[in-house]
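Extended Data, panel c. Modelled sequence:
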Amino acid sequence: QVQLVESGGGLVQAGGSLRLSCAASRSIFTFRGMGWYRQAPGKQRELVAAITSGSTTNYADSVKGRFTISRDNAKNTVYLQMNSLKPEDTAVYYCNANYAGGYWGQGTQVTVSS
């Protein structure tokens, strides 16, 4: 079992920044990868950014150049630095661990006002 706890969400004005954190209950070093997803009201959950165990990253086109995913294996934590936020980034953001079938966090709300 793996517990994932997200934090760092909140309300921010357009153009602002937030940093999300996802703390895992066990070592993330053995995970194949981790990712951040988001789900806006009435929309499907979508991949925002992912990072492999070798620290290869990939991003949704809509966030490239604005968001950065990173990991700290010593802290068992993955981060999502979000800059130049837009109202369309408003969503619940979920952390995912690619391990043993997959695990999800409970989500953290990000609201960007115009």
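The radius of gyration is 13 Å. This feature is highlighted in the accompanying rendering.
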